[in-house]
Structure formats: C-alpha cells, structure tokens
C-alpha cells in the first residue's frame, strides 16, 4: 500500500497531495508550521531486515508552502510516536516512544542485564522464543520481551537518553512543556492489568510516582493547562472490561478527584495503526476536557467542565480523531 500526505485549506476548500513517493508515515505539525513525518524514501532509510542490526526510523521535514521535503534526522530505533518538546533550550529536542526488542543486542543506552549481548544466531529471525504473556499484539506482531520505552532525542547530535527503565512497558503518555505524564509498569513474565502513573520533569529528570501499581487500570491520560486528566478503572465491579471513571488531578493535591463515570469506552475501538501524534481521542481546552465516548450503538463528543458533562455531538458512525473543538467523522455506519 502507498501512503501520501495531503493538505486541505479550510479557508478556500482546496485540497491536494503534497508528497509523491507514497512511502510517507503519519505527520506531526511543528511550531514553525513545518511537517515532520517518517518515510523510507531512499534505500538506506529502510529498516534492516537482519535483527542483529539496530532498527532505524528516518524523518523528513516539509514546508507545505515551499519546496520538497528534506531529510531532517534519523533515529536508530523503531519509533512508534514522536512529539516536539516546547520551551527547552535550542528548540531541537523531541520525546519519542520506541519499540525495544529485549532479545536483540544492547543498543540505544539500554542497560538490562537480561538483554542478549553475544552475537545471535543468524537463523534467529525464523525463531520466536515465547517467554512472556502476552506474546502477540493485536496489531499482528510479536511482543514477547518487547517494551515500549520513552527516550529524549536531541536532533543536533542524534543523542538518545532512555527515560524509563529497560523492563518498563509504557502504555500511554502525554507531554506539556518540560513535563511528561506517563503510565505503565515493569514486569518479567506476565503483564499486569494495573499500571502506575509518573510525572517526569525533563529539565532535572525528577520522576514523581503519582499512582502506585495495583490500584487502577489506566486507559489514557492527558496533561491540561493547570491539571491532569486520567481515565482509570478499579475493575472491582466488572473486571478488565469495566468502563473507566474520569479523574481530574490538581498536581499540587495529594490524590486525584473522581469527577464522573464514563458509561462507555474512551475513544473508538478502530482497526487502524497507531499514528504519530494523531488520532487523539481527547483534548484539553484550558481546563475543560473534550473527549470521544463510544456507547453501544453510537459515538459522542463530550465536554467535561468542572463536574458537568455535556454531549456536544452524537453520531451512529465512528469518530477517528479530535482536535480542539473540531471533530472528523471517519466513517458513517448504521447502528451496531
């Protein structure tokens, strides 16, 4: 399949393709108005098929109003998400999430003693040793001894600094200024249903544990202007399938405040690949929260203001993404 980037001018209604190779990934907007996206336009951009070699993700930068995309930088990791860090010196640092294979040789600053250090068998690509549960991801890939890891990346010198421990699985995260809010857990054999939540200050690497493990399943989280929002479930009534409650946390307070019950799933359960910074299913506008809620036969866009929940939009279709107070309906479908 070929993928292109297209640009829509909301003022004039003009729309057109702005890339031509058909090998572009999902984009992120940078503060200067440029687009940053992964692509394997050249032969050396492609990720090595040999698992003994480090993976690679190459990013290109494009000014939509002028010129062709230029190679911005490459990262020796299998990058699954990337966001620019605003307000830091040099304006050149990014926070990225990468899929790290603990079966592969040491790379990118990981220091896990359980990682294989000797030269692997050339036939290793044909064999998958299943040591953990789960071992297969819903997207169709092996995940035994794989971890989603957060890194700080400096595009000037291509330096990578791991921000989470080697065996910690990051499940969701958000960034605002120098602060990173993330959830996940460290495990060896069986991935727990619950997660812990941390607040990390990039400037001094201070890492504060906000929610300890064993209490909640964390579906998603969001950093707002003066607080954080968390979708969490204690699973006491209906187990792992229980719909989450919404919590607001003034980060100066000792604990989060439960503001409402979702009575539905957060976002839509769509069969699509994870995008770079796109397809977000909730956004903060000031201290208001806008989010997508999936009910049994329809999907809604809701606003949470204080403890008041208001339905802004309702459709029998699927809502793919949410940006501020504008929403795109990805698919109109009959009642399920």
Q: How do the strands and helices of this protein lay out in sequence?
A:
Blueprint lengths: L5 E3 L6 E3 L10 E2 L5 E4 L18 E7 L2 E10 L2 E7 L8 E9 L34 E2 L3 E2 L3 E9 L4 E4 L5 E9 L2 E8 L8 E7 L4 E18 L4 E6 L11 E5 L7 E5 L3 E2 L15 E4 L2 E7 L4 E7 L2 E8 L2 E6 L2 E6 L5
Antiparallel strand pairs: 1-2, 3-4, 4-5, 5-6, 7-8, 8-11, 9-10, 11-12, 13-14, 14-15, 15-16, 16-17, 17-18, 18-19, 20-22, 21-22, 22-23, 23-24, 25-26
Overview of this protein structure:
The structure is a single chain. The chain is mostly beta strands and 336 residues long. Helix content is 0%, strand content 48%. The chain contains no helices and 26 strands. Strands 13-14-15-16-17-18-19 form a seven-stranded antiparallel β-sheet, with no helix packed on it. A hairpin with a 5-residue loop joins β3 and β4. The protein is globular, with a radius of gyration of 21 Å. It starts with 5 loop residues before the first strand and ends in a 5-residue tail after the last strand.
What is this entry, summarized?
This protein has 336 residues and is mostly beta strands.
Given the structure, what is the number of helices? 0
Structural class: mainly beta
Overall average pLDDT: 79
In terms of DSSP E residues, the strand content is over 45%
Helix content: under 10%
Radius of gyration over all CA atoms, rounded: 21 Å
**Main β-sheet: number of strands, strand sense, barrel status?**
7 strands, antiparallel
Write out the strand line-up for the largest beta sheet, numbering strands in chain order: 13-14-15-16-17-18-19
Secondary-structure element string: EEEEEEEEEEEEEEEEEEEEEEEEEE
Task: State the separation between the terminal residues, measured CA to CA.
Answer: 29 Å
Detail the poorly predicted runs.
114-118, 270-278, 325-336
Shape: globular
Count of DSSP strands = 26
């Amino acid at each position: 399949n070929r993928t292109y980037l297209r640009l829509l001018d909301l003022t004039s209604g003009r729309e057109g393709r702005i890339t031509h190779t058909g090998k572009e990934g999902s984009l992120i907007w940078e503060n200067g108005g440029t687009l940053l996206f992964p692509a394997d336009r050249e032969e050396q951009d492609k990720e090595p098929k040999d698992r003994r070699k480090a993976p690679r993700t190459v990013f290109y930068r494009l000014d939509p109003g002028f010129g062709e995309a230029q190679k911005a930088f490459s990262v020796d990791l299998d990058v699954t998400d990337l966001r620019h860090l605003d307000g830091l010196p040099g304006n050149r640092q990014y926070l990225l999430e990468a899929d790290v294979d603990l079966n592969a040789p040491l790379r990118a600053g990981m220091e896990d003693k359980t990682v294989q250090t000797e030269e692997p068998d050339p036939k290793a690509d044909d064999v998958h040793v299943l040591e953990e549960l789960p071992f297969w991801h819903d997207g169709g890939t092996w995940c035994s001894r794989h971890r989603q890891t957060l890194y700080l990346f400096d595009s000037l010198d291509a330096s990578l600094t791991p921000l989470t421990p080697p065996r910690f699985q990051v499940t969701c995260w958000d960034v605002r200024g120098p602060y990173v809010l993330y959830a996940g857990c460290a495990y060896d054999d069986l991935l727990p249903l619950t997660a812990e939540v941390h607040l990390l200050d990039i400037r001094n690497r201070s890492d504060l544990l906000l929610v300890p493990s064993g209490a909640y399943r964390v579906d998603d989280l969001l950093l707002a202007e003066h607080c954080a929002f968390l979708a969490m479930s204690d699973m006491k009534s209906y187990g792992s399938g229980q719909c989450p409650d919404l919590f607001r946390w003034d980060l100066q307070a000792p604990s989060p405040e439960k503001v409402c019950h979702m009575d539905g799933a957060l976002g839509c359960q769509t069969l699509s690949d994870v995008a770079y910074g796109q397809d977000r299913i909730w956004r903060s506008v000031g201290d208001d929260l806008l989010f997508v809620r999936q009910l049994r036969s329809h999907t809604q866009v809701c606003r949470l203001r204080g403890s008041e929940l208001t339905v802004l939009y309702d459709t029998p279709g699927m809502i793919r993404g949410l940006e501020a107070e504008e929403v795109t309906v990805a698919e109109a479908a009959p009642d399920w």
